[in-house]
Amino acid sequence: IAEYIHSLDRISTAWEISKRAGKLGRTQKVLIEVNVAQEETKIGIAPGELYSFCQEIVQVPHLDICGLMTLAPLVEDPEEVRGVFRDLRQMRDDLAARGIFPNFSHLSMGMTNDFEVAIEEGATMVRVGSAIFC
């Protein structure tokens, strides 16, 4: 199991991760993937379903829910997706204020083409693979 799993979006997946982490005697850090832009080609929890998903997932043992992740639409001008990043930050802040997850701090958002805007909007983790490997 990895240090973090960034793409949790199903209760069934949460239970499978929990089972495997339990067998290893550890707690797995995970981020909930939210489809903020509600793109049909991407996976993730719909924003309107996030709170109920979180209420369910808090019952799953061996998971440390650390924050949220999203993939913004691919656009030429990163400013076009600033609202996506801002919305995810607001979702994280709203959930943290409700006290569901004590370690709820991370925002994994932004890739090579838009990571600077994501950082400005609060990203704590970015994915810049193509800037490094291409």
Widest sheet, order of strands: 1-2-3-4-5
What general outline do the C-alpha atoms trace?
globular
Order of helices and strands: EHEHEHEHEH
Task: Work out the radius of gyration.
Answer: 15 Å
Low-confidence regions: none
Structural class: alpha/beta
Strand content: 15-25%
Counted beta strands: 5
CATH architecture assignment: Alpha-Beta Barrel
Number of helical regions: 5
* CATH class assignment: Alpha Beta
CATH superfamily: Alanine racemase
Helix content: 25-40%
Multimerization status: single chain
Overall average pLDDT: 93
For the largest beta-sheet, the strand count, sense and barrel status come to:
5 strands, parallel
Distance between the termini: 27 Å
CATH topology: TIM Barrel
The domain tally reads: 1
Report what the structure shows.
The structure is a single chain. By secondary structure, the protein is an alpha/beta fold. The protein has one domain (4-133): Alpha-Beta Barrel (TIM Barrel), CATH 3.20.20.10. The protein has helices at 11-23, 50-57, 82-97, 115-120, 129-133; strands at residues 4-8, 28-33, 63-69, 106-111, 125-127. A five-stranded parallel beta sheet has the order 1-2-3-4-5. It starts with a strand and ends with a helix. The mean pLDDT is 93.
